C-alpha cells in the first residue's frame, strides 16, 4: 500500500502563495512514488496579493484556502481538519506565501510567528515521529518550530550569484539550528527529527534541476515514512 502524505499549500503564486512549479513537482514525485495524497491549506486571508505580471502589490483580498484550491484542482481541505493519525508524512512546498501566510518570516525574519494550525500540524507529525518535507523557503518553519534541527536552504554564501537569498542560512543558524550547505540537486535528511529539506528555487537553476532536487526530498520522505 502506498504511503499517505499530506501536502500543505500557502496560496497560488510565487510572490504571495505557494510556488506553482514546486507544488506540482512535489505532487508528481509523490504520484510516481505511489503515495496517496491529500492537500490542505489554512482558511485565512492572504497577507497581501501581488500582481505577478507587474511584480507589484494588488489592491484586493484573497483567501489562502480558495487560492490553493487552484493548485489542488478543487480537491482540498481546511488545514484545521488535518489529522496526523490519517497520514504517514507531510510536505510543505515553498513560495513566498509560506513566509507571508503560514508564518510571518517575510516581515519578522527569525522573530516570526507561525500560524496556529501550521504549528499544530508540525508538532503533531514531529511528536508522532512521522517525516516532514520542506523545500525552498519552507525550511524556516522547521527552524522556528524545532530549535536544534538540521535544514538546508542551499548555500550560506551567494556562490556565483546562484544563491541570492543566502542570508537566510544565517538567520536559521541564529535560531539555534544547523544549516547544511547543499546544491539544488540534493536534499538533506535530519534523521533524528525526520526532517527532509531541499533548496529548490532558493537557487537560480534550470527548472529540471529544481524538479530533480525536489524529487530527492520526496524520495527521502517516503523512505522515512
TrEMBL record:
<protein>
    <submittedName>
        <fullName>GAL3A protein</fullName>
    </submittedName>
</protein>
<dbReference type="InterPro" id="IPR029062">
    <property type="entry name" value="Class_I_gatase-like"/>
</dbReference>
Amino acid at each position: 500500500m502506498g504511503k499517505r502524505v499530506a501536502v500543505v499549500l500557502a496560496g497560488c503564486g510565487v510572490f504571495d502563495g505557494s510556488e506553482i512549479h514546486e507544488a506540482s513537482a512535489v505532487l508528481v514525485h509523490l504520484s510516481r512514488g505511489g503515495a496517496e495524497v491529500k492537500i490542505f491549506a489554512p482558511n485565512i486571508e492572504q497577507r497581501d496579493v501581488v500582481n505577478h505580471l507587474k511584480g507589484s502589490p494588488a489592491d484586493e483580498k484573497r483567501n489562502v484556502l480558495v487560492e490553493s484550491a487552484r493548485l489542488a484542482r478543487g480537491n482540498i481541505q481546511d488545514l484545521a481538519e488535518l489529522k496526523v493519525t490519517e497520514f504517514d508524512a507531510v510536505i510543505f512546498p515553498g513560495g513566498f506565501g509560506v513566509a507571508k501566510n503560514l508564518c510571518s518570516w517575510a516581515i519578522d525574519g527569525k522573530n516570526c510567528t507561525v500560524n496556529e494550525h501550521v504549528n499544530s500540524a508540525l508538532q503533531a507529525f514531529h511528536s508522532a515521529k512521522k517525516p516532514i518535507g520542506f523545500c525552498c523557503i519552507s525550511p524556516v518553519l522547521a527552524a522556528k518550530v524545532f530549535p536544534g534541527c538540521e535544514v538546508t536552504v542551499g548555500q550560506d554564501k551567494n556562490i556565483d550569484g546562484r544563491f541570492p537569498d543566502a542570508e537566510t542560512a544565517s538567520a536559521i543558524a541564529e535560531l539555534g539550528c544547523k544549516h547544511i550547505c547543499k546544491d539544488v540537486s540534493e536534499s538533506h535528511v535530519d534523521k533524528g527529527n525526520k526532517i527532509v529539506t531541499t533548496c529548490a528555487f532558493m537557487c537560480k537553476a534550470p527548472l529540471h534541476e529544481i524538479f530533480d532536487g525536489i524529487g530527492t526530498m520526496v524520495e527521502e520522505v517516503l523512505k522515512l515514512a
